Amino acid sequence: MQLPTRVKIIDVGPRDGLQNEKQPVPAQVKVELVQRLQGAGLAEIEVTSYVSPKWVPQMADNHAVMQALPRQDGVRYSVLTPNLKGYEAAVQDRPDEIVVFGAASEAFSQKNINCSIAESIVRFAPVVEAARAAGIAVRGAMSCTVGCPYEGEIAPERVAYLAGLMKDIGVERVDVADTIGVGTPRKVQRAIEAALQHYALDSVSGHFHDTYGQALANTLAALEVGVWNFQSSVAGLGGCPYARGATGNVATEDLVFMLHGMGIGTGIDLDQLVDAGVFISDFLGRKPNSRVATALLNKRAG
Ligand SMILES: CC(C)(COP(=O)([O-])OP(=O)([O-])OC[C@H]1O[C@@H](n2cnc3c(N)ncnc32)[C@H](O)[C@@H]1OP(=O)([O-])[O-])[C@@H](O)C(=O)NCCC(=O)NCCSC(=O)C[C@@](C)(O)CC(=O)[O-]
User: Fold this and answer.
1) Which residues are known to be catalytic?
2) I need a labelling partner for 297 at 20 to 30 A (CA). Which of 112, 119, 166, 231 fits?
3) CA 216 to CA 209: how far, in whole Å?
4) pLDDT at 76
5) Counting atoms of ligand 1 from 1, which one is nearest the CA of 59?
C-alpha cells in the first residue's frame, strides 16, 4: 500500500475550535492564535464564520478578526458562509476560500442551519456562484458523514447523495466530517469512498472529531485510501454547538506527530505548534487537549 508522502493540514481551531467556547475570546487573541499557527507553518487556516451571532455568539467578531489579521504570503484563510447574507459580509474581508456547510443527516441540517438538505443546497448555490465569479475558492463541509447525534448511523449512500449535490452546484472540494467522532476506520473509509464517487482524491479531506478516541486511527484509514488533506484543531479545541457532547477535532499536534513519525511531510514545526496550543489553552484556563503537547511539555519541564 502506497501512502501519501505529503499531507496538507487546515487548522480549524480558530473557527471550529473556538465557536463553542462559552467565555468570550477577544478578537486580538484569535488574531494572535492565527499568527502563531501561520508562524508554525500552517498554510491553511479556517479563521471564522459569518453566521447568525444569535446562533453562534463567539463568531460575532468575524469582521474584526479578519480585518486585523496580518496576512502571510502562501497562507490560505478560509471562512464559513451558510447563505448569501454571510457571503456578502465575508467578501468584504477578502477570504481566500469560503466554506458552505451541509450535512448528510436531515435532522442535523435542521438543527445546525435551520433548513433541510435540499433547501441548504438552494441557499448555497448562489453563494458558490458568486464566490467562483469573484475568484474565491469554494469548499463544502459535509457533517455527520458517519453518525448523527439525532439520527444515529448514517449510510454511505447519504454521503454520496450530498457530495453529488455539492458537485452539481460547483463546490470545488469537500470535507468528510465525522462531527461527533463515532466513526471507526472501515466506516470512515466507506464515507470517503462515497465522496469519491463525485470528487477526485485531491479534492476530498478528512475532518475527524476525537470524541471516542478514534480520530488518528481514522486518519490512518483515510491515508490508506489515498486522502492527503486533513483538518484538525490546535490543542484539540472544539466541539459543535449543535452536536452536544461531541469533543474537538483531533489535535493538530497529535496529527503532525503521527505523520512525521511515518515520514509524511507537513511543513509544520511541531514545537512552534505546541507553543500556539499553549497560548490559546492558557487563555482558556486549561491544558492543551493533546497527548503529544502534554508529552512534549513534560519533556521540556523535565
Ligand atoms: C444559517 C443560519 C443563519 C440560518 O438561520 P435562519 O434563522 O434560518 O435564517 P434567516 O434567514 O431566517 O434569518 C434569521 C436571522 O438571522 C440573521 N442571519 C441570517 N443569516 C445570517 C448570516 N449569515 N450572518 C449573520 N446573520 C444572519 C438574519 O438577518 C435574521 O436576523 P434577525 O432579523 O432575527 O435579527 C443559522 O441557522 C445559523 O447561523 N446557524 C449557525 C450554524 C453554525 O455556525 N454552526 C456551526 C458550524 S458547522 C460545524 O461546526 C460543522 C463543521 C463544518 O465543522 C464540520 C463538522 O465537524 O461536522
Assistant:
1) 240
2) 231
3) 10
4) 98
5) 44
Compute the distance between CA of residue 255 and CA of residue 292 in angstroms, rounded to an integer. Answer: 9
What does the chain come to in residues?
A: 302
Grid coordinates representing 21 are 467556547
Which protein residue has the closest C-alpha to ligand 1 atom 23?
86
pTM equals: 0.97
For residue 23, with 0-12 CB atoms within 10 Å meaning exposed, 13-18 middle and 19 or more buried, which class applies?
A: exposed
Closest residue by Cα to atom 1, ligand 1, is: 113
User: Which residues, including other chains, have CB under 8 Å from residue 145's CB and lie 6 or more apart?
Assistant: 104, 154, 159, 176, 177, 178, 179, 183, 191, 194, 195
Q: What is the pLDDT of residue 247?
A: 82
Domain residue spans in the chain?
A: 8-301
As a whole number, the mean pLDDT across the chain is 96
250 secondary structure, DSSP code: P
Q: Which CATH superfamily is domain 8-301 in?
A: Aldolase class I (3.20.20.70)
Grid cell of 138 as nine digits: 469554494
Give residues (CB < 6 A) around ligand 1.
16, 19, 49-52, 55-56, 80, 82-83, 85-86, 101, 112-114, 141, 143, 177, 179, 207, 240-242
The answer for residues whose C-beta is within 8 angstroms of residue 235's C-beta and 6 or more apart is: 13, 17, 251, 252, 253, 276, 277, 278, 280, 281, 288, 289, 290, 293
Residues with Cβ within 8 Å of residue 52, at least 6 apart in sequence: none
* Amino acid of residue 91: V
Closest by CA to 99, choosing from 165, 15, 191, 212, is 15
Report the largest interatomic distance among the alpha carbons of the chain, rounded to a whole angstrom.
56
Task: Assign 189 to helix, strand or coil.
Answer: helix
User: pLDDT digits over 226-267, tens only?
Assistant: 999 999 999 999 866 677 777 889 999 999 999 999 999 999
The grid coordinates of residue 150 equal 439525532
